[in-house]
Amino acid sequence: MTHPSLGRRSFMLGLAGLSGTAGLGMPGFAHAATPARISEAIHLGLYMPLYAAMNGGFFEKHGLTPDLKTAGGIAQPVPALLSNAADFAVTGTGMSINATVEGAQMVNVAKIAGMISVWVVAKPGITFNGPEDFAGKTVATLKFPSNTYTTPFYAMKQAGMDPEADVTWLQLPFGAQLQAVVDGRADFATVFEWDASIGATQFDLEVVYSLGEALGPVVFSSSFVTADFLEQNPEAVQAYCNAIADAQRALHEDEQLFIDVAAKEFPQIDPEVIAAARPRFFGEVPLVPRNPTISAQEWRTLVDHEAGAGTLREDLPYEQMVDNSFAEKAAQEFGLS
Questions:
Q1: Domain SsuA/THI5-like, which positions (predicted)?
Q2: Which of these, 58, 74, 152, 169, has the minimum number of CB atoms within 10 Å of its CB?
Q3: Where are the beta strands (DSSP E) in the chain?
Q4: Residue 173, class by beta-carbon neighbours within 10 Å (0-12 exposed, 13-18 middle, 19+ buried)?
Q5: Residue 224 shares a structural domain with residue 324
Q6: Are residues 91 and 12 in the same domain?
Q7: How far is Cα 255 from Cα 273, in angstroms, rounded to an integer?
Q8: How far are the Cα atoms of 12, 14, 159, 289, 293 from residue 198, in angstroms, in the given order?
Q9: Alpha-carbon span 237 to 24, nearest angstrom
Q10: pLDDT of 238-270, one tens digit each?
Q11: Using alpha carbons only, how large is the chain's radius of gyration in Å?
Q12: Is residue 77 part of a domain?
């Protein structure tokens, strides 16, 4: 199988939509004078800390007025930063590396998603113990370069398999993976949330494995800025990291906050699905990070994954790509480990 060109990294993944900013019964704060223009790749549940910071009033609490726009693809927040249409990007961390390789120095300042959020779904009674169990099977994914394809591909390579020869890939459009398992065209589907919980609650399927937990903690999605913005606006970057850290703390302490924010941001998702999904956001390797800091090991896991999956243009060092000082200060302020 020949991979499509890396330019398809900007493939429209769908589910775009503008985030609301209404509060959820949180205390009011004075109107802030400093704008924070945020460009998210697409509207996804794995950006939950961002949505909690907006809907919970945490940006205002820390002196920022957030303005969130959905860019329409995981590469698109980069041109938003470069054209000065946005200050902060929220997208796949690998996009900061590829942009920097092309000459635009990006700096990661906060972790948004701490696990690669891909789960394996199958019919009831199917046993799945690891990537080796994909051998000889048909796997329904979204189209490359979706992580529903690249993550199992990478996991199989790590397990010593040949994913191009050992597995039949069924690359499908959004919404079709679960049905492929139900009707027998695929043995497994590899999916994001909310699809994992939709499969469990509406398709009589089972979530049999977490590829993300198996791979371990990782800076799967991050907030990054240009080096120029960081140099010129350190106070805004600190306030942004404070808001994200505050929201992450609140999400881990208050179960209802996740439910309320998810219902507000994703009104098309059944409440039963949201309730079923919540434990997968706060598992042993939490998708919602406990704090926004980015460790060297989390960075290395991300780089190895992206390089192995064929979506990274070059391996750039952690020291060049991450400024952890703002996130560390925020984590210390809120007592987050």
A1: 48-253
A2: 169
A3: 34-40, 64-70, 88-92, 106-113, 119-122, 138-142, 168-172, 188-191, 206-210, 221-226
A4: exposed
A5: yes
A6: yes
A7: 15
A8: 22, 17, 29, 23, 31
A9: 25
A10: 999 999 999 999 999 999 999 999 999 999 999
A11: 19
A12: yes
How far is the C-alpha of 284 from the C-alpha of 2, rounded, in Å? 35
Amino acid, res. 251: L
pTM, entire model: 0.87
Host domain of residue 128: 119-215
Q: Could you give the CA distance from residue 90 to residue 78 in angstroms, rounded to a whole number? A: 9
Length, in residues, of the chain: 337
Helix %, strand %, coil % for the chain, to 5?
Answer: 45, 15, 40
Q: What is the pLDDT of residues 1-59, one digit of tens each?
A: 333 322 322 322 222 222 333 345 444 444 447 999 999 999 999 999 999 999 999 99
Q: What angle do CA 331, 336, 337 make, to 5 degrees?
A: 110
Written as six digits, the tokens of 126 are 């199917």
Give the CATH number, domain containing residue 319.
3.40.190.10
Confirm whether 1 is domain-assigned. no
Tokens read off for 285: 């390797």
Residue 273 near residue 202 (C-beta atoms within 8 A): yes
Shortest CA distance to 47 belongs to which of 80, 74, 79? Answer: 74
CB-neighbour burial class of residue 275 (10 A; exposed 0-12, middle 13-18, buried 19+): middle
333 falls in which pLDDT band (50, 70, 90)? confident
Q: Identify the helix (H) or strand (E) that includes residue 59.
A: helix 58-61
Strand ranges across the sheet with 119-122 = 168-172, 138-142, 188-191, 119-122, 206-210
